[in-house]
């Protein structure tokens, strides 16, 4: 007999406005405890020095995490000119300085070079693995870490303001794998100076914005029965997928992981991903394969009632 999991079968997304100083793992643990949820995970790490939107999945919503992880993200950030740090943010030791302070017109002039698909070397202090070890572990051990450049996508990068000669603020919309700390470092080098990030805030992930987030304090000594209104349906992050409503027979097959016939009206191409529903409730993410629909991730939700 399978061992029963501890906790409640809670399914959905919580969008947290992560505060300064809290790690992503710590944030997930706090939300999971508040809901007494069986499963939890997050989509896109935020460092303790970063704030803003942390998308936390509970229960069956964890099966949709990749769709949030891959979504375009928007950040605001502040760069401090004249000082580079080992970590490319305010946590690290200063490792290089420069007297140069770029003017706003100089900054605006280099921004086009950092939009579109660009080549970027991640920071040495990052979670990327090198020969099976995290880069930050190697760097902290005093080893020289060489990070290879890789292509990343920056959809837009704008200068928001220059509050003083030492600082500039930006907004960036970028794809998966883009490091804002590396962007700040490389911007500074292109401007003939040094620089590092002093503030970083995620304000959007895909179609979810910071306006939909709640403060972590709401989960302090909270009763799980009072928190249901904070849950967003798991399909919230699947709005880009076309929906196919199934009849009872087909839904029963899909609930057991079996494929079903049909590419309704010939409107889908082989390889397309779709969201399968029954009575409007999400049943599975599936892929169209010619005249068949193959479930990829099946949601075990109580309202479906399939055994």
List its salient traits.
ten-stranded mixed beta sheet; Pseudouridine synthase; globular; 3 domains; five-stranded mixed beta sheet; 19 strands; Archaeosine Trna-guanine Transglycosylase, Chain: A, domain 4; 307 residues; alpha+beta
How many distinct domains?
3
Estimated structural class? alpha+beta
The portion of residues assigned to helices is 10-25%
**What's the overall geometry?**
globular
Q: Please provide the ordered H/E string of secondary-structure elements.
A: EHEEHEEEHEEEHEEHEEEEHEEEE
Distance between the termini: 16 Å
CATH architecture of the largest domain: 2-Layer Sandwich
Unreliable runs, pLDDT <50, ≥5 residues? none
Percent of residues in beta strands: 35-45%
Please tally the β strands and state the result.
19
Number of helices: 6
Brief description of this entry?
With 307 residues, the protein is α+β, with helices and mostly antiparallel strands.
What does this structure look like?
With 307 residues, the chain is α+β, with helices and mostly antiparallel strands. It has 3 domains: 12-71 and 208-236, Pseudouridine synthase (2-Layer Sandwich), CATH 3.30.2350.10; 73-205, Pseudouridine synthase (2-Layer Sandwich); 241-304, PUA domain (Archaeosine Trna-guanine Transglycosylase, Chain: A, domain 4). It is built from 6 helices and 19 strands. It has helices at residues 24-35, 65-69, 104-110, 135-140, 180-190, 248-255; strands at residues 12-18, 40-42, 50-58, 73-81, 83-85, 94-97, 116-120, 129-130, 133-134, 150-164, 167-174, 195-205, 208-209, 214-215, 243-245, 260-261, 273-278, 281-289, 292-298. The strands form 4 sheets. Strands 1, 2, 3, 4, 7, 10, 11, 12, 13 and 14 form a 10-stranded mixed sheet that branches. A 5-stranded mixed sheet has the order 15-17-18-19-16. Strands 5-6 form a two-stranded antiparallel ribbon. A hairpin with a 2-residue loop joins strand 10 (150-164) and strand 11 (167-174). It is globular and about 70 Å long. The model has no long low-confidence stretch (mean pLDDT 89).
